[in-house]
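Researcher: Here's the sequence for the chain we discussed earlier.
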Amino acid sequence: MISVDNNPSQFFIIFNNNNTKYIKLFRSNSIIFFTSSRYISFGLQFIRGILVAKFLGPSLLGIWGFLMLVQQYLLNTTCGIEYALNVELSINKNKGNESHSTLISTAINYLIFIFIILFLLILVYNFYSIQIFEKYQFGNFSFELFLIICFAELQQVFSNVCRVYDRLDLVVMYEILINILPFAVIFIFSGNHLIHAILISMIVAGFIGNYLFFKKTPFDYSLSIDFTNLKKLLAIGIPLLLYNFSFNLMLITSRTIISIFYSVKEMGLYSLANSLSSAILIGISSIAWAVFPKVLSKLSNDEDVHELSKNTTLINELYSISVLLMIFIAILFLPIVFIFLKEYIAIEPVLVILLLSQGILSNSFAFNSLAIAKKKQITIAFYSFLSIIFIITTSLIFASLKLNIIWIAISTLLGVIVFSILQILFGYKLLGVKSHYLNLIISIYPFHDLFVLSLFLISNFISSGYIIKIIGFVLFLFFNRRKIIQGINFSRSLV
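Model: Thanks. This is the structure I predict for it:
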């Protein structure tokens, strides 16, 4: 067993000439290309989000935000088949094309079965005029949303196939397509017609993108379902779905509470904050998405506990510093965005809090990967559900007191902190690390980083908040200057 009682920081691995072998798992030109290209997609998505918010206004944006919320929920009707496919293809990458084709075909045909069920449910909803979600005019957009969900679920399967086979160029193509086509309608339509037009443009993009996926990915499709493979995929996928859905649910629970207890306009305001925070972090999330199979493989194969600990802390440090740096820079530039979106200026503090929540989550990325590599995702899902219960409870209290929606965002932030701490402690348990809980937490959340995060949080509630943000950013650069320089040198070495 390893002890860090005397020096918890010994588990932080610094980039230098002696540990190059540990960082080779990040060396991939396809990842650099993918991430760079995703920034183009990020730019398009960011601009699209701003334009949609500008032309729809807060109330109609509330309807749009609700539709996207429903989409997020329904994307989980796959029973985790896409996650299972990614695991099976990654682990059995050396098996023949015929075996892979059978797996992929089974996954696609299973999705078609799910689509039929969803279509029947949409028919029942509209035929009987069920009075649910009426304030968001859900019935008017339900069939378009159904088609978007179908193409999005197929895209999830194809994207996982592509990242295993290093065809990230196809994923980039789809991302750019889905973000660029709506520009063709944003300046032409208005009101509810604009919502319909954007949905239709996403359907067209989904159709074209999935057609190209189907033609370009290296497998032979068949209409049959191999029930042995289907059973295997579901056995792997359902636990992974519980994990992924529980993780995502932490971030969408607050939107769900707002959609129920707050007005359509407030839903629109919060939806803008959520969409901008997602767009801002798309570059970093792209890196995590692209390297995850390699990280999973590396952490699965490490037998030596010291080697495993080094790799885990290295990955965690690289990822968390990158995310926090991006978040703090983005927060400083937010006032420029709200010059264009003056009617949404009240939502800036909410956006800051959502971004800080993402930053805190980033500090447990490697421990998350470690748990999955050790097949402990159900435990992580359990911790996630505990955090969700906390978020729901506190959010309902705040909503019943009719507090401002910023308190719902704070509830999410607190829930994320709870989840992140539980995940980190469990990760150290898997590593066999013995120490006081406080020492373990401090090893991941140094006091200086917590102080900076606190400054950014407090800045939302005082008049001189922007000055406080600048001070916080300068302190972050000072405290982490060595790690940032080493990270920059590392990035250059990848080119």
